[in-house]
Amino acid sequence: MHMPRYECWPSTSSMDKDGTDVQQELSKLKAKIQESREQIAVMPGIDASPAEQQQQLETLQEQVRTKKQLLQKYKSLCMFEVPKAS
């Protein structure tokens, strides 16, 4: 059995317009990717290895724990007098 053959391709001018649109969008996307790469490159700590970053994180977490303990200690000592409203 022979099936009829249909041409489903858009016109050449339509394809040219679509191709131009695609190229413009692709250029925009490439520019955004490049901008992202540049921003990532200047982020603090990006040059540190994962192990170094983990060590820094642990150090900072320990500092936070110490400071929280000191705050609790000073609060419990009641060293601060609250002025009375007159």
From TrEMBL:
Keyword Hydrolase: no
Compartment(s) where it occurs, according to its Swiss-Prot or TrEMBL record: Nucleus
Region of interest called Disordered, as start-end residue ranges on this chain: 1-22
Primary site of residence: nucleus
GO cellular component: mediator complex
Name listed for the protein in its UniProt record: Mediator of RNA polymerase II transcription subunit 9
Family: Belongs to the Mediator complex subunit 9 family.
Originating gene: LOC105905289
Transmembrane segments: none
GO molecular function: transcription coregulator activity
Cross-referenced Pfam families: Med9
UniProt entry tagged with the keyword Transcription: yes
Description of how the protein assembles with itself and partners: Component of the Mediator complex.
Alphabetically ordered keywords of this record: Activator, Coiled coil, Nucleus, Transcription, Transcription regulation
Function: Component of the Mediator complex, a coactivator involved in the regulated transcription of nearly all RNA polymerase II-dependent genes. Mediator functions as a bridge to convey information from gene-specific regulatory proteins to the basal RNA polymerase II transcription machinery. Mediator is recruited to promoters by direct interactions with regulatory proteins and serves as a scaffold for the assembly of a functional preinitiation complex with RNA polymerase II and the general transcription factors.
